């Protein structure tokens, strides 16, 4: 089975909160000293793909739309034992919206060949829009399923389990299909073996420009179907006050009188 | 004997022993059997990888004199010191005496006469013979009566002790009867024999003594020859392997005991077959005397974990001997016995190596769980009387598990993953690399117009900058450096982990990447001197970075601050501390400053200069210090509540009655603060870095207050 996994590189969500800054002008997060990492759900998708490959056979390709820095994320995918990787170098908008990304990915996938299964993370840890997968399925004309947490491959049939608010649903599809992967205890991304990390540098990682896949910068800019009007970090106000009093009873009394108005205001 | 005039002291050799020339007939097979016993081991070692251990002969000889002849390390245990030294010197003296006999009897050179005969061949030999006898008795007493847990109890050991005892006893009997029957005028020079003579004389006739003498003499010889032939097949082999092992020991200190890995050529990353070890690693196995000192001092073992450095060595030894045929095939197949070192090794060697069982096996002393509970404290290596290197073997096995299998504890995985993407091992930290320096106005190399103006780089370390507890330590260090007017700068965001945790956990690859990156950064700024308050970083710079072209003069902050105090640049000179401290302080030696790098004095001197009071010491300190539990990646692991090394260490330190535990390492500070809090009861005890204490002594109020957010 040929599987393609789309991955996204994002700002390290684990960076110290105080280091996180946004630019109100460009309405984007500032990189600052933060690192770039692969979005966690994308890693869950990679792990899911690799497990299917190990159980059946076939090939896994990783694809990303990003900058030269994104090569690191693809190398890591290769180290996880993905077979090959492709990077579409971003042009124009530095924060393209889901529709634009779906367009790019669709063009890239058409260029890369035929796939039986396309996996993506259910959403990214930076903007959390969660629309790219559905839009990509639309572009490619494939059936898609979101919140999938496990996939069984059997004689060309794919049995997918998806999480819902009330439990799980199972769907069967004969592919090609697209699934948006969420995390579960079985798809915790593997730690690459060093041997594989070393090998990852010898595996194919092709870079393409938009032109290579038949698109131009205009095709993927300004097509926004939504607009970010404001971007700011919510501020938290913390006030600390020590309750005074001679006895514990008196302190409790004071505390209660302080809490009451707050409770009343919020109920 | 005719050539010796009457009246010159000597004795007749082979008195009362007809057919004594038969000895030579027996000697040949005895030596052949012994030689085979030694050879069959030596060829096994040759199946290991190459490593250079016959260089620097002068230093090696020094070590040999210190730790073989003078038994430098054996004598650290006073009971063993007494009897083992007796056995060693006794054996050497008796060997010399036998040689003297041979020179006299076979080379016909009459040296066994006169004062030499009296003082050496009679008196000295007799006394050392007695020492051997007493030694056997003491060894036996320990083995059968006191039974310390660290020993391995085998029938073989029992037989050996008995055998040596009986050999010396029968020797004395023969001597006694000879003195009695010949009325030896110089008999008194052999006091022990003389006592036997006197006792026998009163009890038996000359002819009975002569008969007994002949029989016992042959019995004595048979046992002695039997011993020589058998010894190489027993733990007595250590008589040869231990001195050889000490001679070929690692001369560079424990901080430099890990081998670099050639990623281009290595067929296997780390070790999981005996042939992945070096020949010296294999020699180590045969040099072990089973004394158990390593396991007795191991912190992990002390708190009840399964890790036992002695059992790792003994298990590998058994594995080596049980797989001797397969090992020898690897040797035959590629001649040099260096599978893996050369990618052109014939396929035969690799196939043969593939038939070897794995080294890492569950349920054995090399169970992954045991391997991943080592704190890399090096206490085992320091305790080993014969310089066996247990720690590098543990790391070799970890390398295999981490790099080839990616199988290791979750906490360590998180640290490694974080190191890969964030260059520090503390996922989830809420600090960046410069937060701690807020308001201090420190120079950052990358922002300086002329970075060479900074004479010293203050290397902060991840444990200092990113762990809440230690930010006050690095802040105190920076403040003290400023006070002393030192021209220094920090790297700020350009600093990465030195790679120590990665290397100790077993990810040599990641360590190399981090190390190379740091060397590049430091060299870019023309760095010459580094001060750091982390002994792990210190160790990397001192022992490991030169290999990547990073040659710096590196100081632990305690060393540098002490120099500043001595130069009168800090605290207005040595004896003029502005505000001497009234704390009752006990100092905990960090493994990577103390044992790994031999610095025990500077931190103590620094403390003594800042205290009004007398500093406390605990039994496990200095060379014998007990790990805080945080090294070797253990910092990132949740230990079982009843198996916490830090709490065990905290209890030891609390016993000193101190109210302040002084540390010199961010890992120790975090581990011991937790340990002390768990064990201190209602006492008021604080854990403080030396720099914090010094700043307090200098009258800076911020010292003990938390860093402002
Ligand atoms: S280095 Fe320390 S923890 Fe590891 S085996 Fe040796 S004594 Fe035990
Ligand atoms: S390794 Fe060294 S310390 Fe440990 S039992 Fe053997 S000889 Fe003794």
Write a concise keyword list for the protein shown above.
heterodimer, A: 267 residues, alpha/beta, Rossmann fold, 2 domains, nine-stranded mixed β-sheet, two-stranded antiparallel sheet, 6 helices, 26% strand, B: 709 residues, mainly alpha, Fumarate Reductase Cytochrome B subunit, Fumarate Reductase Iron-sulfur Protein, Chain B, domain 2, five-stranded parallel β-sheet, three-stranded parallel β-sheet, 28 helices, 8 strands, 4% strand, disordered C terminus, binds iron/sulfur cluster
Topology overview:
The complex is a heterodimer of chains A (267) and B (709).
Chain A: E1 2-6, E2 9-11, E3 22-23, E4 28-29, E5 36-38, H1 40-55, E6 59-66, H2 71-79, E7 84-89, H3 98-112, E8 117-121, H4 132-140, E9 144-154, E10 157-164, E11 167-173, E12 177-181, H5 194-200, E13 205-208, H6 248-266
Parallel strand pairs in A: 1-6, 1-8, 6-7, 7-13, 8-12, 9-12
Antiparallel strand pairs in A: 2-5, 3-4, 9-10, 10-11
Chain B: H1 22-45, H2 57-69, H3 78-105, H4 114-146, H5 155-182, H6 191-203, H7 206-230, H8 238-247, H9 279-287, H10 293-297, H11 299-302, H12 309-322, H13 324-334, H14 347-354, H15 368-371, H16 379-383, H17 390-404, H18 410-422, E1 443-444, E2 456-459, H19 462-465, H20 471-483, E3 488-490, H21 500-505, H22 508-524, E4 529-532, H23 535-544, E5 553-556, H24 557-566, E6 585-587, H25 601-610, H26 645-654, E7 660-663, H27 666-679, E8 686-689, H28 690-697
The structure holds iron/sulfur cluster (SF4) (2 copies).
């Amino acid at each position: 089975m040929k599987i393609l996994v789309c991955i996204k590189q994002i700002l390290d969500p684990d960076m110290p909160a105080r280091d996180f800054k946004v630019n109100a002008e460009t309405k984007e997060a500032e990189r600052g000293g933060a690192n770039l990492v692969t979005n966690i759900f994308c890693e869950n998708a990679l792990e899911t793909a690799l497990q299917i490959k190990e159980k059946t056979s076939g090939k896994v390709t990783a694809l990303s739309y990003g900058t030269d820095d994104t090569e690191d994320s693809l190398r890591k995918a290769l180290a996880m034992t993905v077979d090959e990787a492709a990077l579409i170098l971003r042009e124009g908008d530095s924060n393209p919206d889901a529709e634009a990304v779906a367009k790019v990915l669709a063009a890239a996938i058409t260029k890369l060949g035929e796939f039986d299964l396309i996996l993506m993370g259910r959403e990214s840890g930076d903007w959390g829009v969660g629309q790219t997968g559905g839009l990509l399925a639309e572009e490619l004309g494939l059936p898609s399923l979101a919140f999938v947490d496990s996939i069984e491959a059997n004689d060309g049939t794919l049995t997918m389990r998806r999480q819902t608010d009330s439990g799980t649903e199972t769907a069967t599809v004969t592919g090609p299909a697209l699934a948006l992967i969420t995390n579960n205890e079985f798809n915790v991304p593997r730690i690459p073996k060093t041997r594989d990390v070393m090998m990852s540098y010898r595996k194919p990682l092709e870079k393409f420009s938009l032109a290579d896949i038949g698109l131009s910068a205009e095709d993927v800019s300004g097509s926004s179907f939504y607009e970010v009007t404001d971007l700011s970090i919510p501020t938290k106000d913390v006030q600390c006050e020590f309750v005074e009093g001679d006895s514990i009873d008196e302190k409790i009394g004071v505390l209660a009188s302080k809490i009451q108005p707050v409770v009343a205001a919020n109920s | 004997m005719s050539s010796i005039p009457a009246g010159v002291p000597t004795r007749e050799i082979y008195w009362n022993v007809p057919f004594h020339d038969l000895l030579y007939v027996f000697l040949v097979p005895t030596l052949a059997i012994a030689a085979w016993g030694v050879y069959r081991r030596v060829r096994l070692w040759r199946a290991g990888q190459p490593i250079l251990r016959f260089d620097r002969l002068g230093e090696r000889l020094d070590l040999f004199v210190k730790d073989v002849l003078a038994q430098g390390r054996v004598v650290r245990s006073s009971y063993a010191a007494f009897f083992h030294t007796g056995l060693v010197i006794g054996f050497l003296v008796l060997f010399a005496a036998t040689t003297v006999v041979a020179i006299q009897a076979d080379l016909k050179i009459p040296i066994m006469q006169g004062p030499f005969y009296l003082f050496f061949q009679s008196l000295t030999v007799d006394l050392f013979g007695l020492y051997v006898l007493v030694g056997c008795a003491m060894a036996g007493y320990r083995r059968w009566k006191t039974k310390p847990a660290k020993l391995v109890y085998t029938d073989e050991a029992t037989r050996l002790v008995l055998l040596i005892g009986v050999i010396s006893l029968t020797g004395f009997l023969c001597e006694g009867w000879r003195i009695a029957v010949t009325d030896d005028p110089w008999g008194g020079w052999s006091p022990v024999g003389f006592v036997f003579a006197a006792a026998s004389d009163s009890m038996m006739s000359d002819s009975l003594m002569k008969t007994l003498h002949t029989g016992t003499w042959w019995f004595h010889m048979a046992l002695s020859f039997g011993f020589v032939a058998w010894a190489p097949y027993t733990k007595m082999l250590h008589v040869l392997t231990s001195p050889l092992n000490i001679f070929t020991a690692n001369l560079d200190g424990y901080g430099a005991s890990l081998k670099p890995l050639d990623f281009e050529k290595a067929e296997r990353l780390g070790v999981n077959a005996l042939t992945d070890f070096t020949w010296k690693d294999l020699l180590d196995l045969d040099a072990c005397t089973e004394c158990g000192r390593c396991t007795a001092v191991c912190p992990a073992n002390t708190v009840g974990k399964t890790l036992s450095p002695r059992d790792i060595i003994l298990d590998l030894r058994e594995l080596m001997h049980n797989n001797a045929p397969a090992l020898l095939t690897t040797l035959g197949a590629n001649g040099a016995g260096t599978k893996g070192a050369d990618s052109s090794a014939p396929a035969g060697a690799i196939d043969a190596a593939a038939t070897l069982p794995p080294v890492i096996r569950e349920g054995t002393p090399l169970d992954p769980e045991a391997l991943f509970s080592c704190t890399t404290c090096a206490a085992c290596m320091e305790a080993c009387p014969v310089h066996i290197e247990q720690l590098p073997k543990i790391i070799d096995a970890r390398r295999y598990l981490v790099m080839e299998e990616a199988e290791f504890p979750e906490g360590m995985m998180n640290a490694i993953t974080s190191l890969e993407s964030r260059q520090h091992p503390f996922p989830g930290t809420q600090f960046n690399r410069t937060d701690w320096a807020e308001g201090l106005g420190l120079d950052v190399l990358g922002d300086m117009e002329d970075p060479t103006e900074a004479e010293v780089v203050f290397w902060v370390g991840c444990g200092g900058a990113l762990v809440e507890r230690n930010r006050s330590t690095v802040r105190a260090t920076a403040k003290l450096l400023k006070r002393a007017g030192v021209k220094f700068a920090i790297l700020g965001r350009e600093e990465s982990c030195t790679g120590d945790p990665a290397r100790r956990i077993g990810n040599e690859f990641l360590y190399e990447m981090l190390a190379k990156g740091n060397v590049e950064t430091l060299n870019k700024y023309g760095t010459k001197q580094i001060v750091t308050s982390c002994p792990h970083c210190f160790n990397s710079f001192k022992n490991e970075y030169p290999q990547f072209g990073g040659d710096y003069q590196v100081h632990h902050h305690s060393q540098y601050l002490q120099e500043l105090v001595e130069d009168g640049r800090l605290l207005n000179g040595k004896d003029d501390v502005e505000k001497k401290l009234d704390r009752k302080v006990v100092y905990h030696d960090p493994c990577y400053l103390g044992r790994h790098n031999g610095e025990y004095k500077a931190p103590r001197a620094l403390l003594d200069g800042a205290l009004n009071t007398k500093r406390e010491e605990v039994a496990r300190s200095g060379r014998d210090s007990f790990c805080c539990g945080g090294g070797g990646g253990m910092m990132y692991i949740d230990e079982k509540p009843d198996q916490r090394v830090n709490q065990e260490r905290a209890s030891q330190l609390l016993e000193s009655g101190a109210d302040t535990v002084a540390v010199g390492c961010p890992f120790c500070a975090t581990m011991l603060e937790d340990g002390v809090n768990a064990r201190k009861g209602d006492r008021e005890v604080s854990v403080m870095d030396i720099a914090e204490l010094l700043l307090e002594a200098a009258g800076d109020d911020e010292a003990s207050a938390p860093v402002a957010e």
